Amino acid sequence: MKTIGLLGGMSWESTVPYYQIINEEVKNKLGGLHSAKIILYSVEFDEIEKCQSSGNWKKSGDILGKAAQNLEAAGADFILICTNTMHKVVPQISSMIDIPIIHIADATADELQMNQIEKVGLLGTKYTMTQDFYKKKLIDRGIDVIIPDDTDIDVINDIIFHELCLGIIKEESRIKFKKIIESLKKKGATGVILGCTEIGLLIHQADSSLPVYDTTLIHAKKAAEIALGN
Prior knowledge:
Layout: E1 3-8, H1 12-30, E2 37-42, H2 45-54, H3 57-74, E3 78-81, H4 90-94, H5 104-114, E4 119-123, H6 126-130, H7 132-139, E5 144-146, H8 150-162, H9 171-186, E6 192-194, E7 212-214, H10 215-227
Parallel strand pairs: 1-2, 1-3, 4-5, 4-6, 6-7
């Protein structure tokens, strides 16, 4: 079994499910007392968020790159960054280590193509929804990406950072997300990506008339698959 390096803490609320899902997958595949070999490096999210909001992506890449080096030194065979947004600095992090990073957008694109989704709605932080580092991965695979309008982008971003990252789950926020998903459906989306690892804490398949693709679940299952050599 390969050793998984988790680069988490962005936020820790959404890192917890990674550990659980990966271990459940390994147990389901191998049975008995089997569990995954995991090394976790959890960063200080306030420091990373300040880099995001100030546009200092290089500094955040340096912080995560050093964390990734520690994971490699500790024996990780590959790394998962337990957040969508910080995949923006994957090229910088990759240049600092010699082990692979399993990109969350690649794993999601695999799942979408397997389910023949050609036009998908994307929910996430404002960075993930408006910038190209994530969307381009999907577009390059022939998948059309639809994002909410500017007002809804602000609503989603506010809920992520001021509620979900703090472990706050509000029914009124769930209702807002459901309305946004319906608007994406009207624009032609045939599926919706929960493209922020915290959104899955709020939105589940029962909340959506579109098939939901939870990136936390997809990414974590991919890690277990790779760790087991599949």
